[in-house]
Amino acid sequence: MNNARRKIISTISTKLDGIKSEVQNVMYEEQDAYDSMPENLQGSTRGEESEEAIDTLDEVVNSIEEAIEGLESIY
Question: What helix, strand, coil percent values describe the chain, rounded to 5?
């Protein structure tokens, strides 16, 4: 791979890292909101939806990290 393409890959990796941070921030906010819910609400549909959102956001963060690692392995 030539230097121009390596630079493009590096830029993409940097952008993905920024996106990962944004997703993590949303995940942390959702976790804080869930933790602030009374226990009876945590067990409700609303609480379960919040937990599912947190889990999904965590999976997204992990996927982005894998993508970044893959890109970094080629430049």
Answer: 90, 0, 10
List all residues 6 or more positions away from 13 whose beta carbon is below 8 Å from its beta carbon. 68, 71, 72, 75
Residue type, 19: I
Domain ranges within the chain, ordered by starting residue: 3-72
Judged against a pLDDT cut of 90, whether residue 75 lies above it is answered with no
Residue 74 CA to its chain's centroid (Å)? 22
Find, among 56, 75, 53, the residue nearest to 6 by Cα.
Answer: 75
Tell me the per-residue pLDDT of 20-42, one tens digit each, with 9 for 90 and over.
999 999 999 999 999 999 999 99
Which DSSP state fits 37?
A: S
CB neighbour list of residue 1: distance below 8 Å, 6 or more residues apart: 9, 74, 75
Q: How many CB atoms lie within 10 A of CB 21?
A: 11
